[in-house]
Design brief:
Layout lengths: L2 E5 L3 H12 L3 E6 L3 E3 L18 E3 H8 L2 E4 L2 E5 L4 E4 L4 E2 L4 E4 L4 E2 L15 H17 L2 E7 L12 H16 L6 E7 L10 H13 L2 E5 L3 E5 L2 E4 L4 E3 L2 E5 L2 E2 L2 H4 L25 E3 L16 H19 L14 E6 L3 E8 L2 E8 L1 H17 L10
Helix pairs in contact: 1-2, 1-7
This protein binds flavin-adenine dinucleotide.
Flavin-adenine dinucleotide binds next to α1, β2, α4 and α7.
Length: 389
């Protein structure tokens, strides 16, 4: 039986392990944490609507259900030519026929980022956001700034949606507590039109939402640095903030940068549309680790990571059997997101034909909750998978 090593236990790695196992391969997944973290529903941690445990699925439960093996031990080095993986403990993993790289991405580092917290960083940061917000509410007033940064080398690695979601959720939460007027909320981003990937109509709607909810906006000026108590900008302006949430744009994972694999300008692993890597037979890169091909508006997303994972399970199995049939992720490229506001949501969809943003007051919030429930239980095999989800 051929053996496959999957590095990373996020959307891409878990989905790959599940689908590779369906093909009766011997599958081992390596992760630095013992749970699969459902990032899209972690946006409710800062407002206390859910806890980290609510949006985490233990990897051993997934492994037991699907029959793959799990090693919880961070990858310290990957030498691609030798197909050799060294773990933090010193353990070396060699002799795997195939390796699937699904380690996610790193974040671009900016001056003073230690003064910020991110909803897209380590899960512990989401909990720290909750604690800091709680402390501000106890104090009775404060200034809160939330935003995201750009990556001029790869716009697909810019993650703005969760910044809007957390900001609107905080606004709703403060209103529910009856203390909104004691807080100043500001959205910031260095680009002139943050969120443009969603399309022009979405931008107009976002502006309306900012105005309606008295959320200030500072965009189009480069961030110089984050400091204790605020953010400094290139034009000399400053946002004062007691709590700054900043989602830095992505860059390639540090382990993969040193692996000897071909990298894009932004340090993501260069693959073809079948997630194969030229010159490295038997190694595949999927999810946020891979350099995403496609139109300018493309974005690294969970559903694209899962499509890549399923494709790789198919492509790899056919490779073993010398069958010349492969699946590409290109026709599945779109932006699909239910952007939550805490009391509703907006359905966001973007493809080559353009963008849509459809308001879904009240019901949208519960739809996203329903998706979180579906994600956990379908992965655990407790309910059937809906085709395409
Ligand atoms: C707050 C938030 C909201 C989002 N909302 C949406 C949404 O609504 N819709 C959507 O489609 N997408 C959404 N996304 C994007 C989506 O979550 C990502 O595209 C997706 O998680 C990518 O999956 P991945 O497996 O490639 O990376 P990740 O999910 O980041 O997984 C990488 C895994 O590798 C592990 N790892 C990292 N380094 C090591 C190491 N050295 N050794 C061992 N293991 C390691 C990590 O622990 C992690 O489990 C959101 C993202 C965030 C952060």
């Amino acid at each position: 039986m051929k053996n496959v090593l999957v590095l990373g236990g996020g959307f891409a790695g878990v989905e790959a392990a599940i689908y590779l196992k369906k093909n009766d391969l011997d599958v081992t997944l390596v992760s630095d944490r013992d749970y699969f973290y459902i990032y899209p529903t972690s946006i409710w941690i800062p407002t206390g609507e859910v806890t980290r445990e609510d949006v985490s699925v233990p990897l051993d439960s997934l492994a037991m259900k699907h029959g793959f093996k799990v090693i919880v031990d961070p990858v310290r080095a990957f030498e691609a030519k030798e197909k050799k993986v060294t773990l933090e403990s010193g353990r070396v993993l060699e002799d795997f026929d195939y390796i699937v790289l699904a380690l996610g991405q790193d974040k671009i580092q900016h001056k003073g980022m230690e003064h910020t917290l991110s909803i897209c960083g380590k899960p512990e940061e989401a909990t720290a956001l909750y604690e800091k917000l709680d402390a501000l509410i106890l104090k009775g007033n404060g200034k809160i700034a939330m935003g995201f940064g750009g990556n001029p080398k790869d716009s697909s690695a810019v993650r703005g949606g969760p910044a809007f979601e957390v900001l609107f959720n905080v606004d709703t939460y403060l209103k529910k507590k009856g203390v909104r007027e004691n807080f100043e909320l500001t959205f910031f981003a260095p680009m002139a039109k943050p969120g443009q990937k969603m399309g022009d109509k979405a931008l107009v709607m976002m502006d309306k939402m900012f105005k309606m909810n008295n959320i200030h906006k500072q965009v189009g000026v480069k961030i110089t640095e984050f400091v204790e108590g605020g953010i400094a900008f290139e034009d000399g302006s400053k946002i004062e903030s007691d709590l700054t949430m900043f989602i830095s744009a992505g860059t390639g994972h540090s382990i993969l940068k040193e692996s000897g694999l071909p990298l894009s300008e932004a340090a993501f692993v260069v693959t073809n549309e079948y997630n194969e890597i030229e010159g490295f037979e038997g190694i595949y890169a999927i999810g946020d680790s891979a350099s995403l091909m496609g139109p300018e508006w493309r974005a690294k997303q969970g559903h694209v990571a899962e499509v890549m994972a399923k494709n790789v399970a198919y492509n790899l199995f056919n490779h073993i059997q010398n069958i010349d049939s492969k699946q590409s992720y290109m026709e599945h490229l779109n932006i699909l997101c239910v952007m939550d506001t805490g009391n509703g949501a907006a359905f966001v969809y973007r493809d080559n034909k353009g963008g849509k943003m459809i308001p879904m007051p009240f019901v949208g919030h519960w739809m996203k909750k329903g998706w979180g429930w579906y994600c956990r239980n379908s992965k655990l095999g407790k309910i059937p998978r809906i085709p395409g989800m």
